[in-house]
Design brief:
- The chain crosses the membrane at residues 35-58, 70-87, 142-166, 178-197.
- It is a multi-pass membrane protein.
- One of its GO terms (cellular component) is plasma membrane.
- With 198 residues, the chain is mainly α.
- The protein has helices at residues 2-15, 20-31, 35-54, 57-63, 65-90, 105-117, 120-134, 141-166, 173-196.
- The protein has one domain.
Length: 198
């Protein structure tokens, strides 16, 4: 139980910080668009990364730093594009209402996949850091992985469906313009951190 609880709270503490993935889930939850599919995708992706880290993928990545460099530049480019898209929404009707025009499920999951799998921090935090912590609990490292994965499920379901419950209170055009401005700032800040270590 100690390994599982440590995994749960460690995983939760790493994932709660506002990032590109969380900002996108928040926006979709408030717009009530593809919430179940998106939170499941995020939680399952995290669980796979955690298991991979505990299984030793983190050690492999540390031996191939070029992989993180590739993810750094590809992820930064995508974050900049996503931030520009959020800024462009501010001046259009897409930013003015909770319902708005819904992107297809496939396109939404494609965006979520890029925000998740092109983010080098996910490999540093989820694969390398959680993997190395989890292996401190050998032979109970898989209980740690289970706990950390459960933390991801709790967080993403709470964020997505919690935002959906709050959506009726945030229908004003001003709110959506502010939210998209905030999302753009988050994307640009993360991209800047990746590129320049700001």
């Amino acid at each position: 139980m100690i390994a599982a609880l440590t995994g749960f709270f460690t995983g939760l503490s790493l994932i709660i910080a506002i990032g590109a993935q969380n900002a996108f889930v928040l926006r979709l939850g408030l717009k009530k668009q593809h919430v179940l599919a998106v939170v499941l995708f995020c939680a399952i992706s995290d669980a796979l990364l955690i298991v991979a880290g505990v299984a030793g993928l983190g050690a492999v990545i540390e031996q191939l730093p070029i992989l993180l460099e590739i993810f750094r530049y590809a992820g930064s480019a995508y974050l900049i594009w996503f931030g520009i898209s959020a800024l462009r929404r501010i001046g259009t009707d897409q930013s003015l209402e909770a319902g708005g025009e819904s992107a297809s499920l496939l396109k939404t999951l494609g965006t979520m996949a890029a925000l998740t799998w092109l983010n080098p921090h996910v490999y540093l935090d989820t694969v390398i850091l959680l993997g190395s912590i989890g292996n401190q609990f050998t032979p109970e490292q898989w209980l740690f992985a289970l706990g950390a994965s459960a933390g991801s499920f709790v967080w993403f379901f709470s964020l997505g469906f919690g935002a959906q419950l709050l959506s009726r209170f945030v229908s004003s055009p001003r709110f959506w313009k502010i939210l998209d401005g905030f999302i753009a700032l988050v994307m640009f800040a993360i991209a800047g951190t990746l590129l320049f270590g700001l």
